[in-house]
Amino acid sequence: MNIQTVGVVGAGVMGIGVAQNLAQTGHQVILVDISDKILEQAKQEISKNIRFQGFFNKSEKTENPKEVLQRIKFTTNYQFLESAEFVIENTTEKWNIKNQVYSQLDTICPKESVFAANTSAIPITRIASVTQRAPKVIGMHFMNPVPMKSMVETIRGYHTSEETIETAKKMLAQMGKECILVNDSPGFVSNRVLMLTINEAIFLLQDQVASASDVDRIFKTCFGHKMGPLETADLIGLDTILFSIEVLYESFNDSKYRPCPLLKKMVDAGLYGRKSGQGFYAYT
Fold first, then answer.
1. Which among 90, 120, 199, 244 is annotated as catalytic?
2. Domain stops at, among 183, 218, 246
3. Which of 214, 218, 244, 267 is most buried per CB count within 10 Å?
4. What integer pLDDT is reported at residue 62 of this predicted model?
5. What pLDDT does residue 60 have?
6. Is position 275 annotated in a ligand binding site?
7. Domain identity same for 201 and 162
8. Could you tell me if 59 and 14 are in contact, meaning their C-beta atoms sit under 8 angstroms apart?
9. Pick from 167, 150, 149: nearest CA to 3
């Protein structure tokens, strides 16, 4: 089965990356968000990202941004998803929002459509429980920036069928990606480890053990990481980090997932990282 029309719900950082990747691999994309302003910003961001790709990959032929954007329908109307063969959801890591989104998707999308949750920490089985198609719900945890990352952490929910897993693998292959399949658990593999690392790095900063740049330098120079934990937090978004660690704290009832007070303070101050222009580092 060659999937042609894909719905993408949420035009934040991850949704933009997923929509761009899909359009660049020849798919017709329906990108849905709650306001025209957000969608216009998404359109501009995708155009800018494609130009940057062309600048950094001069040896590869890159499409004209206008041609890519022609494959994306930007809309606030969920009803357009009635033609989607596959839907990738990328909304905020808040259960009340995801609950409403999936209930809506379930009534609009064809019964054959697969729902893929691009979530950082919320269990796939919980998401599937608010639909009438639990066997067709799977987790697809894309990494940022989506078009440049070739591997996707894919999560099997309690009811996810083998047919859905195979469909998801084919969908990812069409996007030029592979997957590692893991079982469902809050945070899965990547974020159950990564969120703890980032949260502890923020505690180090709060306790004045080291500066942000020195914390990151240790991880890059001693362990060979491309980015340090605080740089990674800025890239992901500190609000998303906080939502994710709160999900882990609530899910496991374990104090090791207690969000660092400094993280909460920075989110309250609107210091989200790259997307706000200021996090642990300043971005211009």
1. 120
2. 183
3. 244
4. 66
5. 59
6. yes
7. no
8. no
9. 167
Structural contact between residues 178 and 152, judged by C-beta atoms closer than 8 angstroms: yes
Number of domains in the chain: 2
* pLDDT tens readout for residues 8-23: 999 999 999 999 999 9
pLDDT of 37 above 80: yes
Residue 225 falls in the annotated catalytic set: no
What's the Rg (C-alpha) of the chain?
Answer: 19
Average pLDDT of the chain to the nearest whole number: 95
Section 216-232 average pLDDT: 97
* Residue 191 designated active-site: yes
| 1 confidence band (pLDDT: 50, 70, 90) | low
For the chain, the residue count is 284
Could you list the residue range(s) of the whole structural domain that residue 132 is in? 5-183
Is 185 tagged catalytic?
Answer: no
